[in-house]
Amino acid sequence: MQVKPERKVVLGFFAHPDDAEFFCAGTLARLADLGWEVHIATAALGDGGSATLPPDEIAAIRLAEGAAAAAIIGASYHCLEERDLQVIFNKSANRKTIDLFRRLAPSLVITHPRHDYMLDHEQVHLLARSAAFAYPVPNGSSLPLVEGSAVPWLYYTDPLAGNDPYTGETVESTVMVDVSTVNDRKVKMLACHASQREWLRSHHGMDEYLDAMNRHSTSRGQQLGVAHAEAFVQHRGHPFPQSDILHTLFGEK
Fold this sequence. Notes:
- By secondary structure, the protein is an alpha/beta fold.
- It is 41% helix and 16% strand.
- The two termini are 22 Å apart.
């Protein structure tokens, strides 16, 4: 098991464009500032994200928004091109996810929690767990194995609003990261997703898209005694690293 990363590569792997921006963009920004190579990937295209535009048109818009948001922190954006509301842990999606991980060879992965408000998120959780375990296996992919590939540190973000959807209880984090100094970049990243921001602004009559993100990071920040924070639960099953790399890097708990 790893005790320190051989490769400073982080992958935020999520269901839809804008998921990473809500829950871990601040941590990704801080990692970028430390010189880490940052990748954001989504399983789905975002083709369900409009009440007026057809699927392919809104998907093209949302993919461009995802790339623009990632570029703010010097990250690369990737998409497996699954369809919204149809993300399933099956052979095809699993193969694509393992191959993505194989190409990027991340030493740190951040993804959705096991329990969340929609099944696309929960299925991506399974895909991430599978690929994190499988990608360093020599015969796990036909793609070449990148030197330094190893089972990565794996962390789960908060579910929506930080509450377990099955119990309603606030999720207990294992580590929190102070993102106060990079919150402006996090806001800019989320604002790149204008198609979603404008839809919610017209629906709610306020900038609910950004307000919801700030409310949550402020709430977690209060627990840490800072302005803004992001909370995570570390996966510590065999054979994943047992040390807490986020705590080591950022010193928060």
